[in-house]
Amino acid sequence: MHILFILKDFKLGGGVERVQRRLSEQFLKDGQRVSFFVMNGETPDTEGDQRHHNGGGSGIAGLIRSIILLRRLIHREDVTHLISAKEQANVCTWFATLGSACKVIYSRHVTLDSTEQKTSPSSLRLLYALYLCGSGKVVTVSTVLRQSLVDLLPWGQQRVSYCPNAVISEQLFQAAQAPLPAGLPGDYWLALGRLTEQKGFHLLLDAYALALHRRVLPDLVIAGDGHLRAALAAQAQRLGVAQRVHFTGYLHNPYPLLRHARLFILSSLHEGMPTVLIEALALGTPVLACDCQTGPRELLDGGRLGLLVKVNDVPALADGMLRSLSARDAAGPSETMITDAIRPYTSQHAAQAYYQVWNQ
Question: Concatenated DSSP letters for 77-116?
């Protein structure tokens, strides 16, 4: 079996990239041959014996070149199974595998109405109809997201499956044992992710400032980088909380921070299945999450495993922060409950789910 991952790009710290990398490493452990094809030519930070192939670049011309290159690669390297992620990669894969005997999985990692995507809902309906009319299968990263696709294309429901993300591996626990970065407070709350509109860090800062007027709180650490960093730093200054908010920038290994945080806060406006929330649970860190359309409610079992608050609601998020201070003194979820909830997200379990989809 030669498994090829197709990605539009490979952003450092990206959640999709992280779970694809862990899935690929599990496939290698299972004795499979694994390669990556990245359309814009970025090099995946993978471990192990995985070959990397460059695509044709960005834009329409880059997409066309990538289709040609991918088609040649499939035949030259005897690729048997493919997994594509993100819509441009899905489109590239569909054209490149026309007439091919390869087993293809097109994956969907974000909600269908994601504000960051450039594809309209009507275009998405057409694209997924094309994927399902071919020989491929579609995989979503949450059961709610699967149902939304089935509602969109009910005739294709037998070809749409849910596969959990490959999040938890031995490397995660090993990485979490590293020393904490220097210069940060000993007692802190943590938010982690790309500094983009989707992640709702502007709401987080407003909520933190509001809650800070009512009680003494731990400092807030925001780990990650992105185009909103300067704007968020300026917002913290305007709110008068700049001395209590610490921006770390991109961290190659954020897991010691996550392991030692007093609380992990997910302020996202939308998610598919937030990997960092799964990682926080695995490392024993209490969580507070905005109840966006897919992901947190499913993972946190309706709030039994962590606090859920209304999405895109600053007062609700501030109240959740204050509730977390008393919640830590109450009986939290048992270790057995946490273990049962995160078991599907181990690399081994996720890989088996993909094998099952291919073998259906």
Answer: TT--EEEEESHHHHHHHHHHTTT---EEEEEE-S-TT-TT
Q: At what angle do helices 201-212 and 229-239 cross, to 10 degrees?
A: 20
The CATH number that applies at residue 293 is 3.40.50.2000
| Pairing outcome for strands 137-140 and 287-290 | unpaired
Please write the tens of the pLDDT for every residue from 119-156.
Answer: 777 788 888 998 988 778 999 999 989 998 999 899 98
> Do 101 and 95 contact (CB within 8 A), yes or no?
no
82 and 126, same domain (yes or no): yes
pLDDT at 99 over 80: yes
Q: Dump pLDDT digits (tens) for 235-272.
A: 999 999 999 999 999 998 999 999 999 999 999 998 88
Classified as helix, coil or strand, 162 is strand
Name, in order, each residue with C-beta under 8 angstroms of 183's C-beta and a sequence gap of 6 or more.
Answer: none
Residue 71 pLDDT > 60: yes
pLDDT in tens, 179-226: 998 889 989 999 999 999 989 999 999 999 999 999 999 999 999 999
Give the DSSP H or E segment for 34: strand 33-38
Q: For 298, which DSSP code?
A: H
Measured CA to CA, the distance from residue 199 to residue 193 in angstroms comes to 7
For 37, 75, 251, the CA distances from 160, given in Å and listed in that order, are 24, 27, 35
Domain count within the chain: 2
Containing domain of residue 208, as a range? 178-343
349 part of a folded domain: no
